[in-house]
Amino acid sequence: VIRCRAAVAWAPNEPLSVEEVEVAPPKAGEVRIKIVATGICHSDDHVLKGSLPNVEFPVILGHEGAGIVESTGEGVTSVKPGDKVIPLCLPQCGECSFCQNPESNYCQKFHFSEPQNLLPDKTSRFSCKGKQIHHFVWVSTFAEYTVVPEYAVAKIDPAAPLDKVCLFGCGFSTGYGAAINTAKVKPGSTCAVFGLGGVGLSVVMGCKAAGASRIIAVDINKDKFAKAKQLGATDCINPQDFKKPVQEVLTEMTGQGVDYSFEVVGHADTMIAALASCNMSTGVCVMVGVMDSEISIDPTLLLTGRTWKGTMFGGSWKMREDIPKLVSSYLEKKFNPDLLITHTLPFAKVNEGFDLLHAGK
Ligand code: NAD
Ligand code: ZN
């Protein structure tokens, strides 16, 4: 058993509490990882606000991390102690029908099908003050050590800087893949991206890499615009600067609406605005933002031919195989998600990280 620090969420709507926890050794088919760096994703915040389904408290959150294998359980063959790895919140069991379908990355072991609050044998490796603490989508990266099933671990290039490539565990791969895999953005096309957090800026990078000729970045926080431009946005607009709805502004800017629109906020109004912003006949709108409420739309929006799609962790990436390839492309300087990193904090200041997220910084 390893004693180390972890940020425990004892209950929803409370700050995280940095505690000493016990992390039990990996059982058969499991891997214990020393987490070196983790990002904060807005989805962690959704969980704290109680708006992600099936999560059980107390829990150790965090799902965008990178680390080094500390030890392995019986039967583990694909990684060994000392390997650099990214733990995967979307596993790749390799056996379910989606893992076997080249067009899907939605492994049926994922949380929405089967809650990942306990490891597959229905027990937890975490305890604190004599209480069992739940895992979060198995990975729980807000801990100095974590235990995950082998099929939720991607082994990456030993040269990868872990404090940078942790973003490949969620934000970068999600946004970049939404453009490349889910929308399949074509060269010369026009795109609109609603929401310029870590995920939305990664969508901008994906649209640019796919050769889009116009990328319109949309956010109510104009402080996000400089970085969006640096990463490839050609225009930046703040919906609050206009009297008319943003979908009308975008339609006027592009003639018939954009070819591809992306919602990367998680609000009903931006979902509808993003859908209405794409070309009424051939446009594709991709939903990336997570929301817990229902929305109603005018069905005519789809009747005229638009396509409305959702995406999880970047569409068709096969997580165990493709995340290491993405990391290698990063090492070959094919893209630069380092620009997404705004602050680097010591672990004990994890709540300050959430304050910065809330403040739009
Ligand atoms: P973030 O908080 O860093 O960024 C959200 C951005 O949206 C901010 O810049 C904010 O100013 C902007 N925004 C807020 N209201 C807006 C409005 N009305 N119009 C335009 N912009 C507005 O969040 P993030 O970490 O980048 O995550 C974005 C969303 O993606 C979240 O909902 C998160 O849960 C979701 N997400 C989905 C997946 C997936 O697999 N589908 C993966 C990761 C994150
Ligand atoms: Zn995430």
UniProtKB/TrEMBL annotation:
It comes from the Eukaryota. GO terms for biological process: retinoic acid metabolic process; retinol metabolic process. Transmembrane segments: none annotated. SUPFAM superfamilies: GroES-like, NAD(P)-binding Rossmann-fold domains. Keywords: Acetylation, Metal-binding, NAD, Oxidoreductase, Zinc. Residues 11-360 form the Enoyl reductase (ER) domain. InterPro entries: ADH-like_C, ADH-like_N, ADH_Zn_CS, ER, GroES-like_sf, NAD(P)-bd_dom_sf. GO terms for molecular function: all-trans-retinol dehydrogenase (NAD+) activity; zinc ion binding. It holds the Pfam family ADH_N. Belongs to the zinc-containing alcohol dehydrogenase family. This is Alcohol dehydrogenase I.
